């Protein structure tokens, strides 16, 4: 580094700017993990609903809990204690263990039990019905359930509230022991909790999990173990694994990079100065995404920094081409046309992602364009002013001269390139597996044994299936409830046929106003009810005035307006009802969640014949359709990017022969990567496509610099040194990513590793000079 006053001032200003930008990023940066950002914008109501369900639906917010490590009776006590501790916890909408509670409705809404219970659909509160109920209650009082029923009996001798609560229980009831849910073996107590946080909010999900474990420690203690599953738990796991692997791989890559630069350039000052454009690029990318999008997705962050790895090539080219005969500013000026062409081409390729309709890709594009532009411009206009002329001249290296001459003396391999292209095409066309991977679950880093455990929990608890949903469109909520009630006989028939084991919808909790009014009209007036009770009390042990509270509640229920969804907003049912039935843009949309789906064909047949406005949403198929739509749009973006890239290179080189020589290695490398992946049985994902663009950008840079140095022997050796250092550094970073356990990072790492090796080799072989030019001074 120069020691002049101007150089030291520039260095201080640059460091201060980085500190200010870093402070801004630290304050503004919010990292997200919602994978729906990498799905295209939905174009239909069903697709919008699918995306909402993935991130914020009731099934996705469920945590499935198992307690183990103690005798069943102790597990049951711990289950009850956990529910009691977390009943009003701020992190949960509800937590349940199957134990029936008569406190499900607030006191003010208790008279509504007569309108919610199905009893009055088939019976009246007449003498015969009341007499039968009172005799049953007399028997109940002598049973163990008597202690539970006795305080409530004067208000509800017909147990309408219990019927309502039972209706609200899952249709596919889990195994019970000691009145709470257990697995079929009786070894684990089971619970369900619904978090307030969306599934892909790892910070709030982590807080909910910590509250669970703290509640168990406070209420049960001992040697009990808790196993938690569900999308929220997986979200936390994904975030933790992504962060830990990024930190580990980043540390290894940083140390490796420092060692490589010290070996290549032999000066600590060169290592420090080369880091300035790279740091500027990373901070500029983060600042741009934070300012424009607010939240930076974790994948954007990880992939963005790998893309910024391209930016580290810029100062390496400057350092490798520096020599005593020219000031670094002059060297930068000479390199700039080639450097600018590669930078502009890569930025243009990613610029098309801004129009892909995918928020995650728009973030990647924003990060990359801002970062590469800052890295390129700072390498051209700021870094040379800090560099001195001191240091080795790689153009005078005897070792590099011998290596370059051997490469230049190789025979023409254009026929071999054509044969390689043909072989790659054959592999691509004959690959047995599908070319494209449409299953989003293949991108999850969650271990397969945890996914199997989650499915086992869901089966035993009868929780909603994460794949199938019935969607009912209606003019308003009342019409939606009426349509749900009309579907009940058919849904029960599906259960009896074994197509499903259960279902859930808003009408199970709140009947339509018409149904409630019909039941209300069947309630007897006070005089009639009192007379019926007087007759029904015969041959029972109850006093004549024991059921005055019951008479008062019936009288109140006769005059109450129908129970609405709004009245239940602040109850434990409110959150579930909000997800099962909502009104938006003047329309109502109701969901029927399904559990234990065994016959998907029967479901499709049912939905096709159920009438207009009823759709079976297959979440897997809908997500695959979105992925296909996204890929088609992305491929169009890539086609546009390819045309723009060819235009930029043509404008820069201006000769067809030179353009073909530069583009050939990049095009052939793309075929090589596709053949290698498909030949190894790997179907391509979105992230392979993005990585292909990065690999193409690297290949273009290598070919441009080799082509630029074709007729200058000293420049050939300097270029060879620069490209060797760049390719080794890039290979080291992406080979580390290829060893990641995270499918997304592994896909990027493998793709770019193959690209670096192929691009470097093909760029040398296809853009190298002839033997005559290789020996020309």
Concise structural overview:
Helix 1 (5-28) runs parallel beside helix 11 (268-293), helix 26 (619-653) runs antiparallel to helix 27 and helix 27 (656-679) runs antiparallel to helix 30 (743-767). By secondary structure, the chain is an alpha+beta fold.
Largest sheet: 5 strands, antiparallel
- Unreliable residue stretches: 771-777
Average pLDDT number: 83
The percent range for helix content is: 55-70%
First-residue to last-residue Cα separation: 31 Å
| Percentage of residues in DSSP E strands | 5-15%
Q: Tally the helices: what do you get? A: 31
Q: From the helix content, strand content and strand pairing, which structural class follows?
A: alpha+beta
User: What Rg do the Cα atoms give?
Assistant: 35 Å
Shape: elongated
- Number of extended strands: 13
Textual characterization of the structure:
This protein has about 775 residues and is α+β, with helices and mostly antiparallel strands. Helix content is about 65%, strand content about 10%. It has 31 helices and 13 strands. The strands form four sheets. Strands 9, 10, 11, 12 and 13 form a five-stranded antiparallel beta sheet that branches. A four-stranded antiparallel beta sheet has the order 3-6-2-7, with helices on both faces. The longest helix has about 35 residues, at about 230-265. The model is unreliable at about 770-775 (pLDDT under 50).
């Amino acid at each position: 580094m120069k020691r002049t006053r101007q150089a030291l001032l520039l260095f201080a200003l640059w460091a201060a700017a980085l500190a200010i930008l870093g402070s801004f990023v630290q304050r503004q940066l919010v990292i997200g993990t919602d994978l729906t950002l990498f799905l295209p914008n939905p174009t239909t109501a069903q697709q919008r609903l699918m995306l909402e369900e993935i991130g914020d639906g009731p099934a996705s917010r469920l945590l499935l809990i198992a307690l183990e490590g103690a005798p069943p009776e102790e597990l049951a006590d711990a289950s009850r204690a956990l529910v009691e501790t977390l009943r009003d916890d701020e992190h949960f909408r509800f937590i349940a263990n199957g134990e029936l509670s008569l406190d499900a409705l607030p006191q003010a809404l208790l008279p509504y039990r007569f309108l919610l219970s199905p009893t009055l659909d088939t019976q009246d509160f007449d003498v015969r019905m009341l007499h039968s109920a009172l005799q049953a209650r007399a028997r109940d009082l002598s049973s163990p359930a008597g202690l539970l029923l006795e305080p409530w009996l004067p208000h509800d001798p017909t147990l309408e509230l219990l019927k309502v609560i039972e209706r609200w229980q899952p249709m596919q009831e889990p195994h019970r022991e000691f009145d709470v849910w257990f697995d079929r073996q009786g070894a684990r107590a089971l619970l369900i909790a619904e978090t307030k946080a969306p599934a892909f909010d790892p910070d709030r999900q982590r807080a909910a999990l910590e509250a669970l474990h703290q509640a168990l420690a406070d209420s049960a203690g001992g040697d009990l173990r808790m196993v938690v599953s569900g999308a929220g738990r997986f979200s936390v796991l994904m975030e933790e694994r992504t962060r830990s692997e990024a930190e580990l791989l980043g540390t290894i890559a940083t140390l490796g990079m420092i060692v490589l630069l010290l070996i290549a350039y032999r000066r600590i000052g060169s290592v420090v100065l080369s880091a300035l454009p790279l740091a500027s690029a990373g901070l500029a990318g983060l600042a741009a995404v934070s300012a424009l999008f607010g939240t930076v997705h974790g994948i954007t962050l990880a992939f963005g920094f790998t893309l910024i790895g391209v930016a580290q090539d810029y100062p390496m080219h400057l350092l490798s081409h520096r020599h005593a005969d020219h000031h670094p500013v002059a060297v930068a000026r000479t390199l700039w046309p080639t450097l600018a062409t590669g930078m502009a081409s890569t930025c243009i390729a990613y610029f098309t992602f801004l129009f892909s309709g995918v928020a995650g890709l728009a973030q990647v594009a924003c990060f990359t364009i801002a970062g590469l532009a800052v890295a390129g411009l700072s390498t051209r206009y700021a870094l040379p002013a800090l560099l001195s002329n001191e240091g080795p001249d790689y153009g005078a290296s005897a070792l590099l001269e011998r290596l370059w001459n051997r490469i230049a003396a190789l025979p023409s391999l254009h026929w071999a390139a054509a044969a390689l292209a043909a072989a790659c095409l054959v592999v691509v066309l004959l690959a047995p597996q599908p070319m494209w991977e449409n299953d989003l679950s293949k991108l999850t880093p969650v271990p397969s044994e945890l996914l199997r455990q989650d499915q086992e929990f869901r089966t035993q608890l009868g929780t909603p299936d994460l794949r199938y949903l019935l969607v009912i469109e209606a003019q308003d909520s009342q019409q939606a409830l009426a349509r749900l009630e009309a579907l009940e006989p058919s849904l029960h028939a599906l259960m009896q046929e074994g197509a499903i084991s259960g279902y859930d919808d808003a009408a199970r909790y709140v009947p339509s106003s018409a149904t409630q009014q019909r039941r209300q009209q069947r309630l007897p007036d006070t005089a009639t009810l009192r007379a019926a009770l007087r007759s029904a009390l015969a041959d029972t042990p109850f006093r004549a005035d024991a059921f005055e509270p019951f008479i008062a509640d019936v009288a109140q229920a006769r005059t109450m307006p129908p129970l609405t969804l709004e009245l239940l907003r602040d109850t434990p049912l409110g959150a579930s009802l909000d997800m099962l039935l909502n009104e938006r843009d003047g329309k109502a949309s109701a969901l029927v969640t399904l559990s234990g789906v065994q016959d998907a064909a029967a479901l499709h047949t049912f939905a096709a014949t159920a009438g207009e406005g009823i759709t079976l949403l297959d979440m897997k198929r809908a997500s695959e359709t979105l992925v296909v739509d996204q890929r088609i749009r992305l491929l169009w973006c890539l086609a546009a990017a390819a045309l723009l890239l060819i235009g930029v290179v043509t404008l820069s080189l201006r000769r067809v022969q030179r353009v073909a020589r530069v583009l050939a290695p990049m095009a052939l490398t793309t075929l090589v990567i596709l053949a290698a992946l498909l030949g190894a049985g790997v179907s391509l994902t979105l992230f392979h496509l993005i990585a292909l663009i990065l690999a193409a950008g690297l290949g273009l840079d290598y070919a441009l610099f080799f082509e630029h140095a074709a007729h200058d022997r000293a420049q050939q050796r300097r270029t060879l040194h620069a490209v060797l250092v760049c390719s080794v550094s890039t290979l080291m970073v992406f080979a580390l990513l290829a060893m990641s356990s995270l499918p997304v990072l592994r896909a990027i790492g493998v793709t770019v590793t193959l690209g670096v090796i192929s691009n470097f080799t093909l760029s040398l072989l296809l853009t190298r000079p002839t033997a005559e030019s290789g020996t020309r001074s």
